[in-house]
Amino acid sequence: MSGKRFDGGLFIRGARDILPLILAAIPFGIVYGAMAQSLGLTHWEAMGMSLFVFAGSSQFIAVTLLASAAALPVIAMTVFIVNLRHMLYAASLMPVAEKIPALLRVPMAFWLTDEAYAVVANRLRAKLDDGKGFYSYYIGAALIMYLNWQLCTWIGITVGEKVPDMTNWGLDVAMVVAFIGIVVPSLQHTAHWACAVTSAVCILLTYDWPHQTGLLFSSVMAIVVGIIVLKQQQNTAERRAIHE
């Protein structure tokens, strides 16, 4: 860990900084538990998905597709594409994470979420430290989010049994607001905006496609457009450097 022991102060700071996003995730987790229960998953199946998958949007998609009797390859491919963004998250953190022993990076990879990445990336961009406290700060943020998700799933399953129409309360709007808060400050380059606009347009055009295939299509298109724009920017920068 870059030559330093685990820093309890940075662990607590990471947990503290992610609290606003945890508050937004609470209703989302409760709705997931209630939905999984209402769609026929057992308590252990619903909890197991939160314990071993730990990916909110993918869990919603998987549960919905399972309930609609979608083919397993469709479910697997859709979840895979939706989670591709985590590869981009990981790649952007590697300059700092590569200094951490490989074994310690395993739980970091599993606990990587949109919320954890948002607070960690913001700290790194602000250059609040030299990266030596990265592990402690990251684990503080990620672990608290993980524990919160398990608790909220359990609450959703338990309360969902007694309140059958709980999924219709519109509680999931809190997570939409949270994602907007995560995404918008991160749109700092043309490639980012191209990716966001492409996904927004595509999802509007494919909203009614069956088995969440519209989401799959929109994700792929957004990634492709973002990569193309990024490559064009890099080529332009290289040509300018050559001419100079």
Tell me what the structure shows.
- There is one protein chain.
- With 244 residues, the protein is mostly helical.
- The chain folds into 2 domains: 8-186, no CATH class; 188-244.
- The chain has helices at residues 8-17, 19-38, 43-52, 56-67, 72-82, 85-97, 102-110, 114-126, 134-162, 173-183, 190-205, 213-243.
- The mean pLDDT is 82.
What's the quick description here?
This protein has 244 residues and is mostly helical. It has 2 domains: 8-186, no CATH class; 188-244. 76% of the residues lie in helices and 0% in strands.
Shape field: globular
Oligomer: single chain
Mean pLDDT: 82
Q: Using only CA atoms, what is the Rg?
A: 19 Å
Sketch the major β-sheet: none
Kindly name the structural category: mainly alpha
Helical run tally: 12
Helix-strand pattern, N to C? Answer: HHHHHHHHHHHH
Name a few traits of the molecule.
transport, Branched-chain amino acid ABC transporter permease, transmembrane, transmembrane helix, Brnchd-chn_aa_trnsp_permease, 76% helix, mainly alpha, 12 helices, 244 residues, single chain
List the helices and strands and how they pair.
Layout: H1 8-17, H2 19-38, H3 43-52, H4 56-67, H5 72-82, H6 85-97, H7 102-110, H8 114-126, H9 134-162, H10 173-183, H11 190-205, H12 213-243
